[in-house]
Design brief:
single chain; about 90 residues; 3 helices; about 0% strand
Length: about 90
């Protein structure tokens, strides 16, 4: 791992930490949901970076699957917040 990869990973972790703070302190529910979505996106980027650094192509598959789960979870959570019901 060279220094550019390490700095990139640390910046991604820093952004994820800031998103986690926003998820805890967010003034509205929508801010919190957006922060959780950003945290998930940072996780996907970090997984892809670790797969690149470690030369493991399986990590990219996991990152794509996690991105899909993150997107569907965000949409489901926003629909629940909007209607306050599980099913319509």
């Amino acid at each position: 791992m060279n220094s550019a990869e390490l700095i990139t990973a640390l910046l991604i972790l820093g952004g994820a930490f800031l998103a986690l703070i926003r998820a805890i302190k967010g003034p509205t529910v929508y801010d919190r949901v957006l922060a959780v979505n950003v945290f998930g996106t940072k996780t996907v980027i970090l997984l892809a970076l670790l797969g690149y650094i470690g030369n493991r192509s399986g990590f990219l598959d996991i990152a794509v699957l996690y991105a899909l789960i993150n997107f569907l979870g965000t949409v489901a959570l926003l629909r629940f917040v909007e209607s306050r019901r599980f099913f319509q």
